[in-house]
Specification:
single chain; 454 residues; alpha/beta; 19 strands; 39% helix; 19% strand
Length: 454
């Protein structure tokens, strides 16, 4: 049983672990030539074996959702589409020159911002040259994020014809008062409409994003939201904790913090969500994610092939992720690089035929080892320890594992660990036991600000 005391105890600020080391540990400047050399070497190793993943960040939105912490540009001027498309395609060409052979494109995701800000014809204009320059295997996975208010039949059909089979709709909350205060007015009939259209066209996975902890949310309003949206039987649900980080997201400063649920109410919202998902037949896949038993994400969790990267959980196991667009992150398996967050700087760098990366990190052997522990825990719920790592594990990790074991969250010995049934509710906390940056900071009493685990 997950008690309120246990949830309160472990409601700590920790990363979401879409990478390790996490972004706050990266260098503020990166050697671009070293990155390019590393990318080419890793491409040679990975392309024929597992292929590559591609993430394209489309930052434009017509209106500001005040809860959003993503990199976005608010405008109603759709003329911006052409310039951005040209820059993305040129950036892709810059990466192609680092590849000795055609890339095998196994995974493609359009994120934002609002990808459906772009017209269907412009999405085709953006993607066709990229797809034509790659080998697309039959088992590829192409997905995009859609806003229910502006996703049309033409968007869905155009992307379906390009090979997309999964769409993720940002539902967030269905309560009119919550929608008003976060500036995302979105009638339920729009969510229902675009869900039905996607299924009629042939999309095999429809995903909903929901957020708990938003201003004005109550247990009563959340229960209505859950029962309403789950009546549409989305194949997957991402149930995210609202991350109140006004020190990095200016729009969140528009909130009256007294409107935010108390820590106690937020935990009630979390428990309510977990209960409703189980009641409706959804399985807990991992951090924040739930899926119906027939969904590929759940099957990957069951057969041990689940993977996690900057796009979240994925069924593709490639270690090479290319990020295109302003603020996008690339991952070669042993290095990270993030593009500039400034749109003007991004345009200037790409126009000068240079990659627009600004910060990043090259992993040493220790980083790679502990990255594997964190990936194993978040994707498989268990990990095995390398005997050579025991001195570090004993000094930094085992004390926390002892505490987690006493609370029934993990079972462990000097050979490895596994999550208990209770432990699946605290994956981020367990992962943090293997975050040597956090564990070492405990000894120096230094802190880095993260959103809370629950």
């Amino acid at each position: 049983m997950i008690t309120a005391n246990l949830l309160s105890k472990y409601d700590r600020p920790v990363p979401r672990y879409t990478s390790y080391p996490t972004v706050p540990q990266w260098e503020e400047a990166i050697d671009v030539h070293k990155w390019e050399s590393n990318f080419s070497a890793q491409f040679r190793l990975e392309n024929q074996r597992n292929g590559v993943s591609l993430y394209i960040h489309l930052p434009f939105c017509e209106s500001l959702c005040t809860y959003c912490g993503c990199n976005k540009r608010i405008t109603t001027n759709h003329k911006v589409e052409d310039e951005y498309i040209a820059a993305i395609q040129k950036e892709w060409q810059l990466y192609l020159r680092l590849m000795p052979q055609r890339p095998v494109l196994r995974e493609l995701h359009l994120g934002g911002g609002t990808p459906t800000f772009f017209s269907p014809s412009n999405l085709e204009k953006l993607l066709k040259p990229i797809l034509n320059s790659a080998i697309v295997p039959e088992d590829h996975i192409f997905s995009f994020e859609g806003h229910p208010n502006n996703t049309t039949y033409d968007h869905l059909k155009a992307l379906y014809d390009l090979g997309f089979r999964r769409v993720s709709y940002g539902v967030q909350d269905n309560d009119p008062e919550v929608q008003r205060i976060i500036n995302r007015i979105q009638p339920f009939y729009k969510v229902q409409e675009v869900t039905e259209i996607a299924r009629e066209i042939g999309y095999t996975s429809v995903n909903f994003d929901l957020i708990y902890g938003l201003p004005k949310q109550t247990t009563e309003s959340m229960e209505k939201t859950l029962q309403t949206v789950l009546s549409l039987r989305p194949d997957r649900v991402a149930f995210y904790s609202y991350a109140h980080v006004p020190w990095t997201s200016r729009s969140q400063r528009l909130f009256d913090e007294s409107d935010l649920p108390t820590a106690e109410v937020k935990m009630q919202l979390y428990r309510l969500g977990k209960f409703q998902f189980a009641l409706h037949g959804y399985q807990d896949v991992g951090m924040d994610h739930f899926a119906l038993p027939g969904d590929e994400l759940f099957k990957a969790r069951e057969n041990g092939s689940l993977h996690r990267n900057f796009m979240g959980y994925t069924t593709q196991s490639t270690n090479l992720l290319i990020g295109l667009g302003v603020s996008s992150i690339s991952d070669t398996g042993n290095a990270y690089a993030q593009n500039t967050k400034s749109l003007r700087e991004y345009y200037d760098e790409i126009a000068a035929s240079k990659l627009a990366i600004r910060k990043g990190y090259f992993l040493d052997k220790e980083d790679q080892t502990f990255k594997r522990y964190i990936l194993d825990i978040s994707c498989k719920g268990e990990t095995q320890f390398r005997q050579d790592d025991l001195p570090l594990l004993e000094e930094f990790c085992f004390p926390m594992l002892e505490e987690l074991s006493e609370d029934g969250i993990v079972e462990w010995n000097r050979s490895g660990l596994r999550l208990t049934g209770r432990g699946h509710h605290f994956i981020r906390i367990v992962c943090s036991a293997f975050d040597l940056f956090i564990q070492r900071r405990k000894q120096t009493m230094q802190e880095v600000q993260y959103s809370k685990a629950i």
